[in-house]
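Newbie here. two chains, one complex. Structure please?
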Amino acid sequence: MTEFFASQRLSAYIDGELSAAEMAEVERALRENAELRAEYERLSATVDFLREHGPVRAPSGFHDRVMASVEHEPAPGGLLARIRGWFAAMPVETFAVALAAVLVAVVVSQKLDDPSETAPTTGEELADRSRSEDKGAVPAPGNADGDLGSAVSTEDQDAVQSTKGNTKEAPAWAEEMAGVLLPDDQPQKRVSSIVEPSSEDGVVTLEVDDEPAPELSAATKDMPDTEIDDGSTNQQLQAAASYRLRVDDPQDLRSLLMLIERYDGTATSNGKAVDEDALVEGASRVGVSILIPQGNLPAFHKALKQLGPVDMTSQNSAAPLYGSDSAVKVFVDVTQ
Amino acid sequence: MLAMLFGMVRRTSDEELVRRFKEGDRAAYSELVVRYQNRVFGMCLRWMGNRSIAEEVAQDVFLALYKALPRFRGDAQLSTWVYRVTVNHCKNRDLYRRRRAHGRHESIDGVPQDADAPTRQYADDGPIADAQTHQTEASELLQAALATLDEDQRRIIVLRDVEDLSYEEIADILELPKGTVKSRLHRARHELARKLGRNISLADVV
Protein backbone atom coordinates (compact mmCIF):
# COMPACT_ATOMS: atom_id res chain seq x y z
CA MET A 1 0.00 0.00 0.00
CA THR A 2 1.38 3.35 -0.97
CA GLU A 3 1.53 6.22 1.46
CA PHE A 4 -1.19 7.94 -0.52
CA PHE A 5 -3.57 5.05 -0.07
CA ALA A 6 -2.61 4.67 3.55
CA SER A 7 -3.42 8.34 4.02
CA GLN A 8 -6.78 7.91 2.35
CA ARG A 9 -7.58 5.04 4.67
CA LEU A 10 -6.66 6.74 7.92
CA SER A 11 -10.21 7.76 8.73
CA ALA A 12 -11.54 4.30 8.07
CA TYR A 13 -8.65 2.94 10.14
CA ILE A 14 -9.62 5.18 13.05
CA ASP A 15 -13.20 3.94 12.76
CA GLY A 16 -12.19 0.30 12.48
CA GLU A 17 -13.81 0.09 9.08
CA LEU A 18 -10.93 -1.61 7.28
CA SER A 19 -10.42 -5.26 6.60
CA ALA A 20 -7.75 -7.03 8.63
CA ALA A 21 -5.38 -6.97 5.69
CA GLU A 22 -5.92 -3.27 5.07
CA MET A 23 -5.41 -2.51 8.74
CA ALA A 24 -2.14 -4.35 8.76
CA GLU A 25 -1.01 -2.38 5.73
CA VAL A 26 -1.92 0.93 7.31
CA GLU A 27 -0.17 0.02 10.55
CA ARG A 28 2.95 -0.91 8.68
CA ALA A 29 2.85 2.39 6.82
CA LEU A 30 2.38 4.24 10.09
CA ARG A 31 5.44 2.56 11.58
CA GLU A 32 7.55 3.49 8.59
CA ASN A 33 6.36 7.00 7.86
CA ALA A 34 6.59 9.77 10.45
CA GLU A 35 4.56 12.18 8.34
CA LEU A 36 1.73 9.70 8.08
CA ARG A 37 1.90 9.17 11.84
CA ALA A 38 1.56 12.90 12.39
CA GLU A 39 -1.47 13.00 10.15
CA TYR A 40 -2.98 10.07 11.98
CA GLU A 41 -2.49 11.80 15.32
CA ARG A 42 -4.01 14.99 13.97
CA LEU A 43 -7.07 13.17 12.67
CA SER A 44 -7.47 11.14 15.85
CA ALA A 45 -7.28 14.28 17.93
CA THR A 46 -9.89 15.92 15.74
CA VAL A 47 -12.23 12.98 16.11
CA ASP A 48 -11.75 12.96 19.87
CA PHE A 49 -12.40 16.69 19.97
CA LEU A 50 -15.62 16.27 18.00
CA ARG A 51 -16.84 13.45 20.20
CA GLU A 52 -16.11 15.36 23.36
CA HIS A 53 -17.38 18.78 22.40
CA GLY A 54 -19.79 18.05 19.58
CA PRO A 55 -22.90 16.83 21.41
CA VAL A 56 -25.16 19.54 22.75
CA ARG A 57 -28.27 19.57 24.83
CA ALA A 58 -31.60 20.89 23.70
CA PRO A 59 -32.44 24.26 25.26
CA SER A 60 -34.32 24.39 28.48
CA GLY A 61 -38.05 24.09 27.90
CA PHE A 62 -37.64 22.70 24.42
CA HIS A 63 -39.66 19.60 25.17
CA ASP A 64 -42.53 21.65 26.54
CA ARG A 65 -42.54 23.87 23.50
CA VAL A 66 -42.66 20.89 21.20
CA MET A 67 -45.54 19.39 23.11
CA ALA A 68 -47.37 22.72 23.00
CA SER A 69 -46.87 22.87 19.25
CA VAL A 70 -48.66 19.58 18.72
CA GLU A 71 -51.35 20.21 21.24
CA HIS A 72 -53.91 21.08 18.58
CA GLU A 73 -52.80 18.48 16.09
CA PRO A 74 -55.22 15.66 15.43
CA ALA A 75 -54.66 12.72 17.66
CA PRO A 76 -53.12 9.71 15.96
CA GLY A 77 -55.66 7.06 15.22
CA GLY A 78 -58.24 9.62 14.18
CA LEU A 79 -59.52 10.66 10.78
CA LEU A 80 -56.20 12.04 9.66
CA ALA A 81 -54.44 8.82 10.46
CA ARG A 82 -56.98 6.86 8.46
CA ILE A 83 -56.61 9.12 5.44
CA ARG A 84 -52.88 8.84 5.58
CA GLY A 85 -53.22 5.13 5.86
CA TRP A 86 -55.01 5.01 2.53
CA PHE A 87 -52.25 6.84 0.80
CA ALA A 88 -49.53 4.92 2.57
CA ALA A 89 -50.49 1.90 0.54
CA MET A 90 -49.64 3.57 -2.75
CA PRO A 91 -46.46 2.49 -4.49
CA VAL A 92 -45.58 6.01 -5.48
CA GLU A 93 -42.03 5.14 -6.42
CA THR A 94 -43.14 3.25 -9.46
CA PHE A 95 -45.38 5.93 -10.69
CA ALA A 96 -43.03 8.74 -9.87
CA VAL A 97 -40.55 7.75 -12.53
CA ALA A 98 -43.26 7.91 -15.12
CA LEU A 99 -43.62 11.57 -14.69
CA ALA A 100 -42.02 13.53 -17.43
CA ALA A 101 -42.60 16.59 -15.35
CA VAL A 102 -44.80 17.77 -12.66
CA LEU A 103 -47.39 20.41 -12.97
CA VAL A 104 -48.57 21.60 -9.71
CA ALA A 105 -51.43 23.89 -9.14
CA VAL A 106 -50.81 25.68 -5.96
CA VAL A 107 -53.70 27.14 -4.18
CA VAL A 108 -52.70 29.82 -1.80
CA SER A 109 -55.57 30.53 0.44
CA GLN A 110 -54.49 33.51 2.40
CA LYS A 111 -57.11 35.68 0.81
CA LEU A 112 -59.96 34.73 -1.37
CA ASP A 113 -60.79 37.84 -3.21
CA ASP A 114 -61.99 36.56 -6.55
CA PRO A 115 -65.66 35.74 -6.21
CA SER A 116 -66.42 36.25 -9.89
CA GLU A 117 -65.47 32.80 -11.05
CA THR A 118 -67.94 30.02 -10.90
CA ALA A 119 -66.73 27.22 -8.79
CA PRO A 120 -67.58 23.60 -9.28
CA THR A 121 -68.14 22.26 -5.87
CA THR A 122 -69.15 18.77 -6.66
CA GLY A 123 -67.28 15.88 -8.16
CA GLU A 124 -69.63 15.89 -11.12
CA GLU A 125 -68.90 19.49 -12.01
CA LEU A 126 -65.24 18.88 -11.69
CA ALA A 127 -65.49 15.85 -13.88
CA ASP A 128 -67.15 17.91 -16.58
CA ARG A 129 -64.30 20.32 -16.61
CA SER A 130 -61.81 17.59 -16.57
CA ARG A 131 -63.40 15.91 -19.56
CA SER A 132 -63.48 19.15 -21.53
CA GLU A 133 -59.80 19.67 -20.87
CA ASP A 134 -59.12 16.12 -21.83
CA LYS A 135 -60.28 16.86 -25.36
CA GLY A 136 -57.68 19.53 -25.69
CA ALA A 137 -54.84 17.30 -24.70
CA VAL A 138 -51.90 16.95 -27.05
CA PRO A 139 -49.77 13.86 -27.45
CA ALA A 140 -47.10 13.21 -24.93
CA PRO A 141 -43.72 14.63 -25.85
CA GLY A 142 -40.86 12.48 -26.93
CA ASN A 143 -40.68 10.23 -29.91
CA ALA A 144 -43.57 8.68 -31.70
CA ASP A 145 -43.66 5.87 -29.23
CA GLY A 146 -44.07 8.19 -26.35
CA ASP A 147 -40.53 7.57 -25.16
CA LEU A 148 -39.92 10.06 -22.42
CA GLY A 149 -36.28 9.33 -22.03
CA SER A 150 -34.07 7.31 -19.83
CA ALA A 151 -35.78 8.44 -16.69
CA VAL A 152 -38.87 6.52 -17.63
CA SER A 153 -39.05 2.81 -17.28
CA THR A 154 -40.63 0.61 -19.91
CA GLU A 155 -43.47 -0.11 -17.61
CA ASP A 156 -44.04 3.53 -17.02
CA GLN A 157 -43.78 4.36 -20.68
CA ASP A 158 -46.57 1.91 -21.20
CA ALA A 159 -48.45 3.76 -18.59
CA VAL A 160 -47.96 7.03 -20.39
CA GLN A 161 -48.94 5.54 -23.70
CA SER A 162 -52.04 4.13 -22.21
CA THR A 163 -53.26 7.63 -21.62
CA LYS A 164 -52.99 8.75 -25.20
CA GLY A 165 -56.58 8.16 -26.03
CA ASN A 166 -59.47 10.01 -24.60
CA THR A 167 -60.84 7.01 -22.85
CA LYS A 168 -59.01 7.32 -19.62
CA GLU A 169 -60.77 6.19 -16.57
CA ALA A 170 -59.97 7.10 -13.08
CA PRO A 171 -59.05 4.11 -10.98
CA ALA A 172 -61.40 3.32 -8.19
CA TRP A 173 -59.03 4.60 -5.59
CA ALA A 174 -58.94 7.95 -7.35
CA GLU A 175 -62.65 8.30 -6.99
CA GLU A 176 -62.24 7.49 -3.38
CA MET A 177 -59.59 10.12 -3.12
CA ALA A 178 -61.80 12.61 -4.88
CA GLY A 179 -64.38 11.88 -2.31
CA VAL A 180 -61.87 12.65 0.35
CA LEU A 181 -60.81 15.82 -1.32
CA LEU A 182 -64.12 17.17 -2.36
CA PRO A 183 -66.91 15.27 -0.78
CA ASP A 184 -70.03 16.20 -2.64
CA ASP A 185 -72.14 16.09 0.42
CA GLN A 186 -69.71 18.21 2.35
CA PRO A 187 -68.45 20.82 -0.06
CA GLN A 188 -67.44 23.02 2.79
CA LYS A 189 -64.91 20.53 4.04
CA ARG A 190 -61.55 22.14 4.07
CA VAL A 191 -58.68 20.25 2.63
CA SER A 192 -55.15 21.30 3.04
CA SER A 193 -51.84 19.84 2.13
CA ILE A 194 -49.09 20.12 4.60
CA VAL A 195 -45.39 20.14 4.16
CA GLU A 196 -43.55 17.53 6.00
CA PRO A 197 -40.99 14.95 5.13
CA SER A 198 -42.41 11.75 3.98
CA SER A 199 -41.59 8.44 5.44
CA GLU A 200 -39.32 6.10 3.62
CA ASP A 201 -42.07 5.08 1.29
CA GLY A 202 -42.86 8.62 0.28
CA VAL A 203 -46.43 8.86 1.20
CA VAL A 204 -48.94 11.42 0.18
CA THR A 205 -49.77 13.65 3.03
CA LEU A 206 -53.10 15.29 3.24
CA GLU A 207 -54.77 16.90 6.08
CA VAL A 208 -58.41 17.47 6.43
CA ASP A 209 -59.21 20.21 8.80
CA ASP A 210 -62.08 19.59 11.07
CA GLU A 211 -63.18 23.19 10.96
CA PRO A 212 -65.48 24.06 8.06
CA ALA A 213 -63.99 26.53 5.66
CA PRO A 214 -66.71 28.62 4.04
CA GLU A 215 -64.31 29.86 1.40
CA LEU A 216 -63.66 26.41 0.08
CA SER A 217 -66.07 26.71 -2.80
CA ALA A 218 -63.79 29.33 -4.24
CA ALA A 219 -60.59 27.71 -3.18
CA THR A 220 -61.32 24.37 -4.67
CA LYS A 221 -62.55 25.32 -8.06
CA ASP A 222 -60.54 24.16 -10.98
CA MET A 223 -57.73 26.23 -12.20
CA PRO A 224 -58.69 28.08 -15.38
CA ASP A 225 -56.88 26.72 -18.38
CA THR A 226 -54.89 29.86 -18.74
CA GLU A 227 -53.33 29.23 -15.40
CA ILE A 228 -52.41 25.70 -16.13
CA ASP A 229 -51.09 26.17 -19.60
CA ASP A 230 -48.59 28.94 -19.30
CA GLY A 231 -48.10 29.14 -23.02
CA SER A 232 -44.42 28.38 -22.78
CA THR A 233 -42.47 26.52 -25.41
CA ASN A 234 -42.70 23.39 -23.38
CA GLN A 235 -44.86 20.74 -24.75
CA GLN A 236 -47.96 20.18 -22.85
CA LEU A 237 -49.57 17.42 -21.32
CA GLN A 238 -50.98 14.19 -21.24
CA ALA A 239 -51.12 12.09 -18.13
CA ALA A 240 -49.27 12.10 -14.95
CA ALA A 241 -49.22 14.13 -11.94
CA SER A 242 -51.06 17.24 -11.58
CA TYR A 243 -52.80 17.97 -8.46
CA ARG A 244 -54.05 20.86 -6.67
CA LEU A 245 -52.10 21.67 -3.68
CA ARG A 246 -53.33 24.01 -1.12
CA VAL A 247 -50.62 25.88 0.66
CA ASP A 248 -51.70 27.58 3.79
CA ASP A 249 -48.28 28.35 5.10
CA PRO A 250 -46.15 30.75 3.06
CA GLN A 251 -43.09 28.89 4.21
CA ASP A 252 -44.36 25.82 2.42
CA LEU A 253 -44.56 27.71 -0.83
CA ARG A 254 -41.09 29.08 -0.35
CA SER A 255 -39.81 25.61 0.26
CA LEU A 256 -41.40 24.42 -2.93
CA LEU A 257 -39.92 27.25 -4.97
CA MET A 258 -36.50 26.64 -3.53
CA LEU A 259 -36.69 23.04 -4.48
CA ILE A 260 -37.63 23.92 -8.02
CA GLU A 261 -34.71 26.27 -8.25
CA ARG A 262 -32.36 23.68 -6.90
CA TYR A 263 -33.25 21.30 -9.68
CA ASP A 264 -32.94 23.93 -12.40
CA GLY A 265 -36.65 24.11 -12.84
CA THR A 266 -38.94 27.00 -13.41
CA ALA A 267 -42.13 28.01 -11.76
CA THR A 268 -44.47 30.16 -13.76
CA SER A 269 -47.91 31.48 -13.30
CA ASN A 270 -49.82 32.77 -16.28
CA GLY A 271 -46.62 32.65 -18.25
CA LYS A 272 -44.67 34.79 -15.82
CA ALA A 273 -42.07 33.82 -13.31
CA VAL A 274 -43.59 33.29 -9.93
CA ASP A 275 -43.10 36.21 -7.63
CA GLU A 276 -42.70 34.54 -4.31
CA ASP A 277 -43.34 37.57 -2.20
CA ALA A 278 -46.41 38.54 -4.18
CA LEU A 279 -47.72 35.04 -3.84
CA VAL A 280 -47.26 34.68 -0.18
CA GLU A 281 -48.35 38.17 0.65
CA GLY A 282 -51.25 38.87 -1.57
CA ALA A 283 -52.38 35.92 -3.57
CA SER A 284 -55.63 34.22 -3.06
CA ARG A 285 -55.34 31.37 -5.48
CA VAL A 286 -52.64 30.81 -7.96
CA GLY A 287 -51.89 28.12 -10.46
CA VAL A 288 -48.22 27.42 -10.79
CA SER A 289 -46.68 25.47 -13.62
CA ILE A 290 -43.53 23.70 -12.61
CA LEU A 291 -41.17 22.54 -15.29
CA ILE A 292 -38.20 20.44 -14.42
CA PRO A 293 -35.53 19.28 -16.89
CA GLN A 294 -36.08 15.68 -17.69
CA GLY A 295 -32.73 14.58 -16.35
CA ASN A 296 -33.43 16.13 -12.98
CA LEU A 297 -36.94 14.87 -12.71
CA PRO A 298 -36.44 11.68 -10.75
CA ALA A 299 -34.28 13.46 -8.22
CA PHE A 300 -36.69 16.36 -8.07
CA HIS A 301 -39.60 14.12 -7.52
CA LYS A 302 -37.81 12.26 -4.82
CA ALA A 303 -36.87 15.50 -3.10
CA LEU A 304 -40.38 16.79 -3.52
CA LYS A 305 -41.72 13.86 -1.66
CA GLN A 306 -39.25 14.43 1.10
CA LEU A 307 -39.99 18.09 1.22
CA GLY A 308 -43.65 17.60 1.58
CA PRO A 309 -45.87 18.95 -1.18
CA VAL A 310 -46.66 15.63 -2.56
CA ASP A 311 -48.25 14.45 -5.72
CA MET A 312 -51.26 12.35 -5.98
CA THR A 313 -50.23 9.54 -8.14
CA SER A 314 -51.84 6.40 -9.18
CA GLN A 315 -51.33 3.21 -7.33
CA ASN A 316 -51.81 1.56 -10.63
CA SER A 317 -48.91 2.62 -12.81
CA ALA A 318 -50.74 1.45 -15.89
CA ALA A 319 -53.52 3.86 -15.29
CA PRO A 320 -52.26 7.25 -14.34
CA LEU A 321 -54.73 9.26 -12.49
CA TYR A 322 -56.91 11.19 -14.80
CA GLY A 323 -60.01 13.30 -14.84
CA SER A 324 -63.17 11.36 -14.99
CA ASP A 325 -64.97 11.76 -11.74
CA SER A 326 -61.86 12.62 -9.92
CA ALA A 327 -61.29 16.09 -8.68
CA VAL A 328 -57.66 15.59 -9.45
CA LYS A 329 -56.57 16.30 -12.96
CA VAL A 330 -53.56 15.01 -14.71
CA PHE A 331 -51.05 16.77 -16.88
CA VAL A 332 -47.56 16.38 -18.07
CA ASP A 333 -45.21 19.13 -19.05
CA VAL A 334 -41.88 18.24 -20.51
CA THR A 335 -38.99 20.54 -21.06
CA GLN A 336 -37.17 19.87 -24.27
CA MET B 1 -38.92 -11.67 40.78
CA LEU B 2 -35.82 -10.95 38.79
CA ALA B 3 -37.88 -10.88 35.67
CA MET B 4 -40.20 -8.38 37.29
CA LEU B 5 -37.31 -6.18 38.32
CA PHE B 6 -35.85 -6.47 34.89
CA GLY B 7 -39.16 -5.46 33.42
CA MET B 8 -39.33 -2.43 35.67
CA VAL B 9 -35.97 -1.10 34.64
CA ARG B 10 -36.21 -2.13 31.01
CA ARG B 11 -36.16 0.82 28.71
CA THR B 12 -39.21 0.99 26.54
CA SER B 13 -38.19 0.42 22.96
CA ASP B 14 -38.73 2.95 20.22
CA GLU B 15 -40.99 0.48 18.48
CA GLU B 16 -43.17 0.17 21.54
CA LEU B 17 -43.43 3.93 21.86
CA VAL B 18 -44.35 4.28 18.20
CA ARG B 19 -46.98 1.59 18.55
CA ARG B 20 -48.49 3.29 21.56
CA PHE B 21 -48.44 6.63 19.81
CA LYS B 22 -50.25 5.19 16.81
CA GLU B 23 -52.95 4.09 19.19
CA GLY B 24 -53.38 7.63 20.36
CA ASP B 25 -51.05 7.77 23.34
CA ARG B 26 -49.55 11.25 23.33
CA ALA B 27 -47.40 10.37 26.32
CA ALA B 28 -45.52 7.99 24.08
CA TYR B 29 -44.78 10.83 21.70
CA SER B 30 -43.64 12.92 24.64
CA GLU B 31 -41.20 10.20 25.60
CA LEU B 32 -39.89 10.08 22.03
CA VAL B 33 -39.29 13.81 22.15
CA VAL B 34 -37.33 13.42 25.36
CA ARG B 35 -35.37 10.62 23.80
CA TYR B 36 -34.45 12.41 20.59
CA GLN B 37 -34.49 16.10 21.44
CA ASN B 38 -30.77 16.42 22.11
CA ARG B 39 -29.81 14.58 18.95
CA VAL B 40 -32.23 16.48 16.75
CA PHE B 41 -31.38 19.83 18.23
CA GLY B 42 -27.66 19.07 18.15
CA MET B 43 -27.83 18.11 14.52
CA CYS B 44 -29.73 21.29 13.71
CA LEU B 45 -27.35 23.45 15.69
CA ARG B 46 -24.24 21.99 14.10
CA TRP B 47 -25.81 22.42 10.73
CA MET B 48 -27.36 25.86 11.13
CA GLY B 49 -24.78 27.38 13.43
CA ASN B 50 -27.36 29.44 15.22
CA ARG B 51 -29.24 28.33 18.28
CA SER B 52 -32.48 30.17 17.68
CA ILE B 53 -32.77 28.91 14.13
CA ALA B 54 -31.70 25.45 15.20
CA GLU B 55 -34.47 25.40 17.75
CA GLU B 56 -37.00 26.49 15.16
CA VAL B 57 -35.93 23.78 12.80
CA ALA B 58 -35.83 21.18 15.54
CA GLN B 59 -39.37 22.07 16.54
CA ASP B 60 -40.43 21.76 12.93
CA VAL B 61 -38.82 18.35 12.83
CA PHE B 62 -40.79 17.14 15.83
CA LEU B 63 -44.00 18.55 14.46
CA ALA B 64 -43.36 16.72 11.20
CA LEU B 65 -42.59 13.55 13.11
CA TYR B 66 -45.82 13.85 15.01
CA LYS B 67 -47.72 13.99 11.76
CA ALA B 68 -45.73 11.32 9.99
CA LEU B 69 -45.27 8.77 12.74
CA PRO B 70 -48.67 7.17 12.22
CA ARG B 71 -47.45 5.90 8.87
CA PHE B 72 -43.99 4.89 10.01
CA ARG B 73 -43.83 1.22 9.15
CA GLY B 74 -40.64 0.35 10.92
CA ASP B 75 -38.76 -0.70 7.80
CA ALA B 76 -35.85 1.35 9.07
CA GLN B 77 -34.81 2.05 12.61
CA LEU B 78 -36.67 4.95 14.10
CA SER B 79 -33.41 6.74 14.85
CA THR B 80 -32.37 6.54 11.20
CA TRP B 81 -35.72 7.85 10.14
CA VAL B 82 -35.58 10.70 12.64
CA TYR B 83 -32.14 11.68 11.40
CA ARG B 84 -33.35 11.55 7.81
CA VAL B 85 -36.24 13.85 8.62
CA THR B 86 -33.86 16.17 10.45
CA VAL B 87 -31.43 16.24 7.56
CA ASN B 88 -34.23 17.04 5.15
CA HIS B 89 -35.45 19.89 7.29
CA CYS B 90 -31.96 21.28 7.69
CA LYS B 91 -31.37 21.04 3.94
CA ASN B 92 -34.63 22.77 3.31
CA ARG B 93 -33.93 25.60 5.70
CA ASP B 94 -30.37 25.94 4.45
CA LEU B 95 -31.63 26.20 0.91
CA TYR B 96 -34.03 28.89 1.97
CA ARG B 97 -31.29 30.80 3.75
CA ARG B 98 -29.08 30.70 0.73
CA ARG B 99 -31.82 31.82 -1.53
CA ARG B 100 -32.66 34.72 0.72
CA ALA B 101 -29.01 35.56 1.16
CA HIS B 102 -28.41 35.66 -2.57
CA GLY B 103 -27.07 39.05 -3.44
CA ARG B 104 -26.03 39.85 0.04
CA HIS B 105 -22.41 40.11 1.01
CA GLU B 106 -21.03 37.27 3.00
CA SER B 107 -19.31 38.00 6.23
CA ILE B 108 -15.62 38.60 5.95
CA ASP B 109 -14.70 35.43 7.76
CA GLY B 110 -16.49 33.46 5.10
CA VAL B 111 -19.11 32.15 7.43
CA PRO B 112 -22.53 32.49 5.85
CA GLN B 113 -24.97 34.63 7.70
CA ASP B 114 -28.38 33.41 8.61
CA ALA B 115 -30.67 34.79 6.00
CA ASP B 116 -33.84 34.00 7.83
CA ALA B 117 -32.78 35.17 11.23
CA PRO B 118 -34.80 38.00 12.65
CA THR B 119 -33.65 41.41 11.46
CA ARG B 120 -32.60 42.46 14.88
CA GLN B 121 -30.06 39.70 14.87
CA TYR B 122 -28.33 40.64 11.67
CA ALA B 123 -25.82 42.82 13.37
CA ASP B 124 -24.49 40.13 15.59
CA ASP B 125 -25.66 36.98 13.94
CA GLY B 126 -23.62 33.94 13.03
CA PRO B 127 -20.86 32.36 15.01
CA ILE B 128 -20.38 35.41 17.19
CA ALA B 129 -23.95 35.38 18.41
CA ASP B 130 -23.78 31.65 18.59
CA ALA B 131 -20.64 31.83 20.66
CA GLN B 132 -22.42 33.94 23.22
CA THR B 133 -24.75 31.11 23.98
CA HIS B 134 -22.43 28.20 23.81
CA GLN B 135 -21.39 26.53 26.97
CA THR B 136 -17.72 26.14 26.39
CA GLU B 137 -14.97 27.72 24.45
CA ALA B 138 -14.24 24.43 22.78
CA SER B 139 -17.77 24.12 21.57
CA GLU B 140 -17.60 27.62 20.14
CA LEU B 141 -14.38 26.83 18.42
CA LEU B 142 -15.82 23.65 17.01
CA GLN B 143 -18.91 25.41 15.77
CA ALA B 144 -16.86 28.03 13.99
CA ALA B 145 -14.66 25.39 12.40
CA LEU B 146 -17.65 23.33 11.28
CA ALA B 147 -19.20 26.40 9.72
CA THR B 148 -16.25 26.71 7.38
CA LEU B 149 -16.73 23.23 5.97
CA ASP B 150 -18.88 22.76 2.97
CA GLU B 151 -22.32 21.33 3.51
CA ASP B 152 -21.49 17.78 2.45
CA GLN B 153 -18.50 17.60 4.71
CA ARG B 154 -20.30 19.13 7.65
CA ARG B 155 -23.29 16.83 7.57
CA ILE B 156 -21.18 13.72 7.29
CA ILE B 157 -18.76 14.61 10.03
CA VAL B 158 -21.59 15.58 12.36
CA LEU B 159 -23.45 12.35 11.73
CA ARG B 160 -20.35 10.29 12.27
CA ASP B 161 -18.32 12.01 14.97
CA VAL B 162 -20.97 13.88 16.88
CA GLU B 163 -23.96 11.61 16.49
CA ASP B 164 -21.84 8.47 16.37
CA LEU B 165 -23.71 6.82 13.53
CA SER B 166 -22.24 3.98 11.55
CA TYR B 167 -21.13 4.33 7.95
CA GLU B 168 -24.13 2.26 6.91
CA GLU B 169 -26.55 4.47 8.78
CA ILE B 170 -25.03 7.60 7.29
CA ALA B 171 -25.17 6.11 3.83
CA ASP B 172 -28.80 5.27 4.41
CA ILE B 173 -29.71 8.70 5.74
CA LEU B 174 -27.87 10.66 3.08
CA GLU B 175 -28.63 8.16 0.35
CA LEU B 176 -25.03 7.83 -0.62
CA PRO B 177 -22.88 4.79 -1.33
CA LYS B 178 -20.86 3.70 1.67
CA GLY B 179 -17.64 4.34 -0.22
CA THR B 180 -18.66 7.94 -0.81
CA VAL B 181 -19.39 8.37 2.87
CA LYS B 182 -15.98 6.99 3.68
CA SER B 183 -14.07 9.24 1.31
CA ARG B 184 -16.05 12.36 2.18
CA LEU B 185 -15.60 11.69 5.85
CA HIS B 186 -11.88 11.46 5.42
CA ARG B 187 -11.74 14.74 3.55
CA ALA B 188 -14.00 16.39 6.12
CA ARG B 189 -11.84 15.29 9.01
CA HIS B 190 -8.71 16.32 7.20
CA GLU B 191 -10.19 19.74 6.51
CA LEU B 192 -11.52 20.17 10.02
CA ALA B 193 -8.16 19.18 11.50
CA ARG B 194 -6.57 21.85 9.37
CA LYS B 195 -9.09 24.46 10.49
CA LEU B 196 -8.81 23.56 14.13
CA GLY B 197 -5.06 23.45 13.89
CA ARG B 198 -5.04 27.13 13.02
CA ASN B 199 -6.62 28.02 16.29
CA ILE B 200 -5.51 25.53 18.83
CA SER B 201 -2.44 23.51 19.33
CA LEU B 202 -2.54 19.78 19.04
CA ALA B 203 -1.79 19.56 22.74
CA ASP B 204 -4.93 21.55 23.50
CA VAL B 205 -6.99 19.21 21.42
CA VAL B 206 -5.51 16.11 22.86
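Moderator note: Residues 14-205 of chain B form a domain with the Rna Polymerase Sigma Factor; Chain: A fold (CATH 1.10.1740.10). Residues 78-101 of chain B form the longest helix (24 residues). Thread marked as resolved.
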